[in-house]
Specification:
By secondary structure, this protein is of the alpha/beta class. It is built from 12 helices and 18 strands. It folds into 3 domains: 115 residues, Rossmann fold; 229 residues, pyruvate-formate lyase- activating enzyme, CATH 3.80.30.20; 61 residues, Beta Barrel (OB fold (Dihydrolipoamide Acetyltransferase, E2P)).
Length: 449
């Protein structure tokens, strides 16, 4: 009888897809997946190591599950993903409670590795931590663990940008793009499974195809995805201001299925900081890109992410960033505190900002962005919007919750819906009745379709 496995997926959507692929491979091999850790023979934790808080979350989860193992509530503890890829040998020495550490290239072999573990074929603590080359394709099964009508589609893995603060090229390897026909094949399969929203993801989606023969481009891929029956919304994440091309903007504007939503991480606006970060873009260029995005795409919802407290970020440079946030008026914004990561160029830079000052700067930006978001959301009141229903709501008077095209899952706000009709996964029209900083409240105006 095959073992029962509980999978814990930490970190970004790209990591979630890896977890879903491992779940699919394990099920194909006869293993059973359970959502209840106490029922599992094996607990598998797919970890993140992007920044210090992500590492801390991963370590905390490992120790929490190790306590379950010590209490004999599971037989084996397995740790996969970015954390062992980066720190495999150290982890083997420091956390002996873990039976198996596996790197990214172990993903396609996960069933074999766990079978050997349960049958005690190999010694424990096996690791495959060389430079990762694995790239999923449409031949790999996936068990979708997010909502069944909305899921992520990974078009590439790795990154060749080598931003000075970032460990992704060290951990995930260089850019590896999937062939367009293979991406479309997976998208068609997802559509037959009832997926209505596809969220395009990669470490940098706008770098797609640069490493492939004939250099396929993102814009034609997006247009081809729009031709797939059953797919209603297509959303684009992780675009780079130095790489977003005119034909991509035109595709977003012209294709009804593509949400008028762009995730454009700028990280900073000060030229000295951007140069030190190796972002390949200037502050003026960022402003020009934003203006072009808004000129080409009507009713655009623009999301960004920032880093505060980067080495050399003086009060003057921070104020420049703060002023720009008021000028740009992003619809959605997230702030990361600079994380000192060993083996990165930024780790050796002078003039590090004290941790408490980093937190102050993050809080200032987020408090002021809340005011901007509130004003923008207020402008939506009394408008008619399409909403994809996600599930039931626990807010009195609003029985369901969902998202507008301008709201990405997990990172943006929700819309709470009063009125009748609208099963999970349906898209309905609603009138926005009121708004808060991040969430909206709506009333159904006609039947779902």
């Amino acid at each position: 009888m095959k073992a029962t496995i509980h999978i814990i997926s930490l970190g970004c959507p790209k990591n979630l897809i890896d977890s879903e692929v491992m779940a699919g491979l394990l099920c194909e091999a006869g293993f059973h997946i359970t959502e209840i850790p106490e029922q599992a023979d094996i607990i598998l934790i797919n970890t993140c190591t992007f920044i210090t808080p992500a590492k801390e979350e991963s370590i905390d989860e490992i120790f929490r599950m190790a306590q379950m193992k010590q209490a004999e509530r599971c037989r084996f503890l397995v740790v996969t993903g970015c954390l062992p890829q980066r720190y495999g040998k150290v982890l083997q020495q420091e956390i002996p409670e873990v039976d198996l550490f596996l790197g990214i290239d172990d993903i396609p072999h996960i069933a074999h590795r766990l079978r050997n573990l349960t049958e005690r074929v190999n010694d424990t603590h096996h690791s495959n931590m060389g430079k990762p080359t694995f790239l999923m394709d449409s031949s790999y099964p996936r068990i979708i663990s997010s909502s069944p009508h909305s899921t992520y589609l990974k078009i590439a893995d790795g990154c060749s940008n080598h931003c000075s603060y970032c460990v992704i090229p060290l951990v995930r390897g260089e850019l590896r793009s999937r062939k367009p026909e293979d991406i479309l094949k997976e998208a068609e399969r997802l559509a037959t499974q009832g997926v209505k929203e596809i969220i395009i993801t990669a470490q940098e989606t706008t770098a797609y195809g640069r490493d492939l023969p004939h250099r396929p481009r993102l814009a034609p891929l997006l247009k081809d995805l729009c031709r797939i029956d059953g797919i209603r919304w297509i959303r684009l994440l992780y675009t780079h201001p130095a790489g977003i091309a005119d034909d991509v903007l035109s595709a977003v504007a012209e294709e009804e299925k593509i949400c008028n939503y762009i995730d454009l991480p700028i990280q900073h606006i000060d030229d000295d900081i951007l140069k030190s970060m190796n972002r390949r873009v200037t502050g003026v260029a960022i402003k020009n890109v934003i203006n072009k995005c808004r000129a080409v795409i009507p009713n655009l919802a623009l999301r960004t992410s920032l880093i505060v407290g980067y080495p050399g970020e003086t009060e003057e440079k921070f104020e420049r960033l703060r002023e720009f946030i008021h000028e740009a008026r992003f619809d959605h914004l997230g702030v990361f505190i600079y994380s000192h990561e060993e083996d990165t160029v930024a780790a050796s830079l002078p003039d590090h900002v004290p941790d408490d000052e980093k937190e102050v700067r993050r809080d200032i930006i987020m408090e002021e962005q809340a005011i901007i978001s509130y004003d923008i959301n207020q402008s939506l009141v009394d408008t008619i919007q399409e909403i994809m229903i996600e599930g039931p709501s626990d807010i009195p008077g609003y029985h369901r919750m969902g998202r507008l095209k301008r709201q990405a899952p997990d990172i943006d706000g929700m819309t709470y819906v009063a009125g009748t009709g609208g099963r999970v996964g349906s898209i309905i029209s609603c009138r926005i009745e009121s708004a808060e900083e991040y969430d909206l409240y709506a009333q159904t105006v006609r039947k779902p379709y």
